[in-house]
Specification:
heterodimer; A: 88 residues; mainly alpha; 3 helices; 0% strand; globular; B: 402 residues; alpha/beta; two-stranded antiparallel sheet; 14 helices
Chain lengths: 88, 402
């Protein structure tokens, strides 16, 4: 059975945080998980590679990007929307 | 002017993964050159090099580190770790503010460039990993060394092709001699053994297909190597006060520019660099017992270098020893002077002169004592290390036993 978008995003974030996917609390911020700015850029790259899409993310000012990185949940939602938009 | 000594040394190349390995390999006249092993070698006409065998980054670095470190950075960190451990130096906050790192490299993160150009041009990918730039930049190695050891003083990268390491060490020497820093990490690193790296060199037609034979009449070109050498340079009084083991004293340095040709060596530029280093060290030519030659194994370099040595030293040229360790580890380009300084340290410290291996046929234009094929025991007090780069940039260091 293929993994859901949520599971895949969590796996990518877990890899950057060097923890198990089961340990990722979706209400956590990236900072809570110990992911720094370089880790975030890597995670965005991994999401783009994994889902073959382009994430509207600007490292100059991540909070102003369309891609909502407030916490893990917001990132999952954003990726789900991107994947849905790509399929439509 | 402050005296400058070497209190730590570290190296990795096809001759081994530590300074001690290098001494042993040079003593045993070991050949580190063999078939190249990386993607697309079948499309190369040059297929030999001094490649580090069984190199496993995962054994030395975390996954996160490997994502950020090109191989030239990895090599620099491996050598720096060894040098720092040996020096026993503890960088207090006070010392750290003026301590720095100056490293040479010619190609910087060339492996990273090669891989990613392949990915976007050949494989047609439109997205590259976010760390391509921080991996490939020429100062990446120096910056990562500075971060690892909290070196907050003068830190930069020197790129003068094959003389990069000697120029770098010359800067570190002068930073301590002038009193700006008490401690400098210095040397150089290179990792050009990849398809694009060798393909570019093939173009010049100066590479040998079958071996590196410096000074031998049947030499037919240079052979590339890879790796790094890093040293801890330290103010003599500081080193003595903390009871550090002193490996050698750096006594002189000179650099010159041929200002004549982008690839052909020039005897006058080489002569001025050698005699400049002697003058800077306030020693006479008679004091020099050993020269680690630039000795690339090209027709042009070796005869020009020998002629320069003969003219600088006169009759003493027949009494000194001069060898090219590139015959064993290959030409590490921007890292070569650092690994080769080890041969000078071995000469003055252990009384063992590294050989020029693969020496087969005498060349009347290179009629010096090139220490052919076997290491030799001899007492040497002062040694020189030559580096004469493409672009006509020359840098010569002098080291003395302490």
């Amino acid at each position: 059975m293929s993994k859901t978008v949520e599971e895949q995003v969590i796996a990518i974030i877990a890899e950057q945080a060097l923890i198990e996917p089961s340990e990722v609390d979706t209400s956590a911020t990236l900072e809570d998980l110990g992911i720094d700015s370089l880790g975030l850029v890597e995670a965005v790259f991994a999401i783009e590679e994994n889902f073959d899409l382009s994430v509207p993310f600007n490292a100059n000012d991540p909070t102003e990007s369309e891609f909502d990185i407030s916490n893990v949940r917001s990132m999952i939602n954003a990726v789900e929307q991107l994947v849905a938009a790509k399929g439509s | 002017m402050n005296r400058v000594v070497i209190t730590g040394q570290g190296a990795i190349s096809s001759l081994g993964a530590s300074a001690a390995d290098h001494f042993e390999s040079m003593r045993a006249a070991r050949n580190g050159i063999g078939p190249l092993n990386f993607q697309d070698t079948e499309r190369l006409s040059i297929r030999i090099g001094g490649q580090i065998k069984d190199y496993d980054p995962a054994a030395r670095f975390s996954r996160q580190d490997i994502t950020l470190f090109d191989k030239f950075t990895q090599f620099a960190l491996i050598a720096a770790d060894e040098a720092m451990a040996q020096s026993g130096l503890i960088l207090t906050e006070d010392l750290a503010t003026t301590a720095g790192v100056v490293l040479g490299t010619a190609g910087g993160g060339l492996q990273t460039q090669d891989e990613n150009y392949r990915s976007v041009y050949e494989d047609g990918k439109n997205r590259v990993h976010p760390f391509v730039v921080p991996r490939l930049m020429n100062n990446a190695a120096a910056s990562h060394v500075s971060m690892r050891y909290n070196l907050q003083g003068p830190s930069f990268t020197v790129a003068t092709a094959c003389a990069s390491s000697n120029h770098a060490m010359g800067q570190a020497f002068n930073l301590i001699r002038s009193g700006i820093s008490k401690v400098m990490l210095t040397g150089g690193s290179e990792s050009m053994l990849c398809f694009g790296g060798i393909k570019a060199w093939e173009g010049l037609r100066v590479m040998s297909k079958d071996g590196c034979r410096p000074f031998s009449a049947n030499r037919n070109g240079m052979v590339q190597g890879e790796g790094a050498g890093v040293f801890v340079f330290e103010d003599y009084t500081h080193a003595r006060a903390r009871g550090a083991e002193i490996l050698a004293e750096v006594v002189g340095f000179a650099m010159t520019s041929d200002a004549s040709d982008i690839v052909m060596p020039n005897k006058q530029g080489a002569k001025r660099a050698i005699s400049g280093a002697l003058r800077d060290a306030r020693i006479s030519g008679e004091d020099i017992g050993y020269i680690n030659a630039h000795g690339t194994g090209t027709a042009a370099n070796d005869k020009t270098e020998c002629a320069a040595v003969r003219e600088v030293f006169g009759a003493h040229a027949d009494r000194l020893m001069i060898s090219s360790t590139k015959s064993m580890h290959g030409h590490l380009i921007g890292g070569t002077g650092a690994v080769e300084l080890l041969a000078c340290i071995m000469a003055i410290r252990d009384g063992v002169i590294a050989p020029t291996i693969n020496y087969e046929v005498p060349d009347p234009e290179c009629d010096l004592d090139v220490v052919p094929n076997e290491a030799r025991e001899a007492k040497v007090t002062v040694a020189l290390s030559n580096a004469f780069a493409f672009g006509g940039l020359n840098a010569v260091l002098a080291v003395r036993a302490v």
